[in-house]
Each structure stands twice: as C-alpha cells, then as structure tokens.
Amino acid sequence: MRKYKVTDACVHDSQALNVLFDSGNTIRDVWADSAYRSEAVEAHLEYQGYRSRIHHKGVRGKPLTDREKQGSSTRSKTRCRVEHVFAWMVQWSGKTVRCIELARSEVSIGFMNLVYNVRSFCAIRRVAAS
Fold first, then answer.
1. What DSSP designation does 65 have?
2. Which of 19, 27, 97, 124 is the residue whose CA sits 20 to 30 A from 66?
3. Where is the region Disordered (predicted)?
4. What is the rounded CA–CA span in Å between residue 43 and residue 33?
5. DSSP assignment string, 10-64
6. What radius of gyration do the chain's Cα atoms show?
C-alpha cells in the first residue's frame, strides 16, 4: 500500500480517487468497483494515461450485456486481492475507526496500513526463504 486518503464519511470514495494515483507506479491499470465508474472518471483516467479496469454497472432498464458480465468477472479475480486487504483491516480494527478528529483517524488508519505492509513483507520473506 503506497498511498491512502482519509475523508469524512459524507465524502464518496470516488471523490478522492485522483489523490491515490502514484506517478512512480509502473503499472497504468486502475482497478475499482462499479461505484467509481462515471464518464468523468473514465475521461480523466484516459487523459492521465491510465487504463480503466473499473467494473461495469447496470442501470434500471439496461442490464449488463454478457460481455460486460464476463469482463466484470475477469476483473474480480484481480480485485479480490485488494478486497482481502480491506477485509483484514476490518477484522483487525473493527468496522469503524473511533476517533474524534479526522487527523487522529488518519494516523490510526496510517498505522493499520503500516502494519499490513510489514506483515505482507514478512510473509513474502518467509515464502522466499523456503
């Protein structure tokens, strides 16, 4: 985990998407669930040179096509690894971060990210050593 952004609960996740892009990252794919898909986000990703791997979403009266369903299924196989990170954080800290100030929440979540990165590093080292 390289970057993160902590916001109030009233801010939608897609509003903080631009902050998370890392110019040092060599992979130009953006993986996200369907909540991030919009014409504005797609246009911004294309303008910045990123490839969108965002899930498609159906709307009332216009369900997903078979091709879009297959694409979302294929994307899910990669995205599940990211979702495991969030599941670990929920299991480790509970569903909510209970802090009075946003700055305290940011530090708390930052430490969770640090612990996750150290645990992942140790696991990778154990596998490499065996």
1. P
2. 27
3. 56-76
4. 17
5. TS-GGGGGGGG--TT-S--EEEE-GGG--HHHHHHHHHHTPEEEEPP--BTTBPP
6. 17
Please indicate whether residue 91 or residue 97 has the higher confidence score (pLDDT).
91
Of 58, 8, 61, 14, residue with least CA distance to 35: 14
- Closest by Cα among 1, 75, 95, 90 to 34: 75
Task: Determine the average pLDDT of the residues in 99-124.
Answer: 88
Q: Is the pTM of this model over 0.70?
A: no
The confidence band for 126, taking pLDDT boundaries of 50, 70 and 90, is very high
Q: How many residues does the chain have?
A: 130
